Model the fold of this input.
Amino acid sequence: MTRDRDRGGDERDLSIARLALATMGTGAAVLVVTAVVVVIVTPGPVVGLVIALVGIVAAIAAMGVVSTRMTRRAYGDR
Done:
């Protein structure tokens, strides 16, 4: 499929599906790593909660980094 440059098509289009899959995949990977850490460490309730909360924050941060990087790569710093 060719892009129509007259209609303003960009050579580096960003697929929303690709962005969503990459972002959700990154978040899921971080949460899996967090779950593995909890299983390996076998912490008490409070420490386990702290590890889980750090994992959630890390997943959100990683998702933000991936989506920002993909968007900037596709569209630049407009």
